[in-house]
Amino acid sequence: MKRSVVFVVFFLILGFAVAGLYWSQRRPKSSPVSANAILNMAADAQRDLSRVPMRLTRLSDEREIRIGKELASTLLLKKKGSRSTSPASEAPWPFARIGTYRTPLPSSPITT
After folding, report:
1. How many CA atoms lie within 13 A of 16 on its CB side?
2. Which 3-state string (H, E, C) describes the chain?
3. pLDDT tens digits for range 58-76
């Protein structure tokens, strides 16, 4: 008695699985036509091309830190000059100026 119930349940589950597989393979698939595949391919190629210079030219840590300090100092000079001449250059987005209020960590190698 127990054995026949197990077989019936097993074959019911197997039948539902086969019917679901058959139904999923036979129903018509709707594939929207768009240029997304070509755009994604072009974006991938552009991203790979933009990363080529970094793979070819490796910088030492000291040189990278020096370049970062130079960029930071020139940006600070530009910001100080633009703030004094035009007060209307305030950023309309509230999170745009978060970086200006950040204090560097004491262990940061890029402290100015």
Report:
1. 5
2. CHHHHHHHHHHHHHHHHHHHHHHHHHCCCCCCCCCHHHHHHHHHHHHHHHHHHHHHCCCCHHHHHHHHHHHHHHHHHHHHHHHHHCHHHCCCCCCCCHHHHCCCCCCCCCCC
3. 778 888 889 888 988 888 8
Task: Find out whether 110 and 71 touch, Cβ atoms under 8 Å.
Answer: no
Residues in contact with 52: Cβ distance below 8 Å, sequence separation at least 6, in sequence order: none
> Nearest to residue 111, comparing CAs of 76, 60, 59?
76
Which residues of the chain carry a pLDDT beneath 50? 84-88, 112
**Rounded to whole angstroms, how far apart are CA atoms 14 and 16?**
5
Q: How far apart are alpha carbons 101 and 112 in whole angstroms?
A: 14
Q: How far is CA 47 from CA 39, 58, 64, 82, in A?
A: 12, 18, 22, 33
- Dihedral angle sign, alpha carbons of residues 86, 87, 91, 96: positive
